[in-house]
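Thread: flavin mononucleotide complex, take 2
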Amino acid sequence: MKILALNSSPRTGIQSKTELMLDHLVTGMKEAGAEVEVVNLRKKKINSCMGCFTCWTKTPGKCIHEDDMTNELYPKWLEADIAIYATPLYHYTMNATMKAFIERTLPVVEPFLREREGNTYHPLRQKHPKLCFLSVAGFPEPQVFNQLSAWVNFVYGQYGIVVGEMYRPLAEVLDLPFFREKVDDIFSATEQAGKEIVQAGKISPETMARITQPIVDDKKEFYEMGNKMWEACIEKGLTPKEFMEQLEG
Ligand SMILES: Cc1cc2nc3c(=O)[nH]c(=O)nc-3n(C[C@H](O)[C@H](O)[C@H](O)COP(=O)(O)O)c2cc1C
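Output below.
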């Protein structure tokens, strides 16, 4: 099984909670025997879709842009059995880098109009990879992902290609030692989810419950900790990354 993991976070290393979660997901998928390639979209040139519909008319299935999407990513994406869309939650949805990638997958459908269960759709020109969504958010409530999940299911549910949705709220604490035990369980559940997707094509409810488990009992505790950090950052004129580096070093 070939899996293409697309990470749209602009951050790297332990600062990126998308990357942290994705690393564990990929580990589980590899352990289950899948061949996984991880691509950091921040390093790629992906022009915005221009809406010219050249990919539907003059050169069916091929975009007019000459960039990393046309020359490298789109062919890889078409070959993949599963594509992982790993994105930080920005303004309660995927970030712009991930959206730019998704808009550029337009050549995979044909322009023709069809109807299914009262909804208009475009038929697929080629096989669309199955999709696994991973997102992380700063806020602690699971419902911050409601809009993203509704979008995912509206757009891709109709094609029956969604094999997983993993949404981790309160992700900014995943690199802190205070919550080690719970965080380790979340990471091991994320690896387990990777195995389940490869072996069973879905994530079990038990694994999902571990991924989304609450990390703090009382939100006030989290507010207090977060607000102290922001106050210190403002006072010292440091970004959170610089602040953490100062604390550690
Ligand atoms: C521009 C921007 C918008 C954000 N919007 C939200 C949001 O709507 N809800 C939320 O819970 N967190 C939001 N966050 C917090 C991020 O989701 C959080 O920092 C996450 O860890 C980012 O992923 P990364 O660590 O992989 O970069 C936002 C962060 C930024 C920079």
